[in-house]
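>> received
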Amino acid sequence: MHIRDWPEGERPREKLLARGAGSLSDAELLAIFLGSGTAGRDAVAAARDLLAGQGGLRGLLDREPKALVRLHGIGPARACTLAAALELGHRHLAAQLARGEAMADPAAAGRYFAQRLRGLGHEVFAALYLDTRHRALGFEELFRGGLDGAEVHPRTLVERALARGAAAVIVGHNHPSGNPEPSAADRAVTTRLKQALALVDVRLLDHFVVGDGAPVSMAARGLV
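>> returned
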């Protein structure tokens, strides 16, 4: 049976319009981007097959567009659509941090670090610079490493914070293993960064560790 033959309240597009995007399952959301199914499979069934074959939504969407193209039922047009949708999501979150309003929700920064760093196959250390009212001045990746670490230089962070005119900094890095628990090395480098920034009157507000699930705030753990 084609989706157009389903009861109206069960069709993904109609369901989204009536109840909101949050009411749809992962497969139903993916089906909207696919637009149509494959031979003998409607779009929702095809979406379920893709999710099952890739270990879920993250396993599918963490793939590069060139890898998505090779999956059965995707192809170049759908791969580009999915990649563009993800990038729009990233930019929307970035716009929330950059629209000139003071950051009232510290967890928003953690979500942004997770969006930017989760799923990378190598460790990346990044910084979000804030002004005196905790409005975002910019975000940049500072250091890249391998599977199990990236060398972090406090002097570089201090120089970049001063160049941005930052009054405060939030830093974050990912653990490609998926385990977001801060390591002894993470705690040590956080202390070094806080001390180095304090010498030039810049506050280190938090250090997020990104892995599977919610990012870990080291400030919430009393480690900043």
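>> The chain is about 45% helix and 15% strand.
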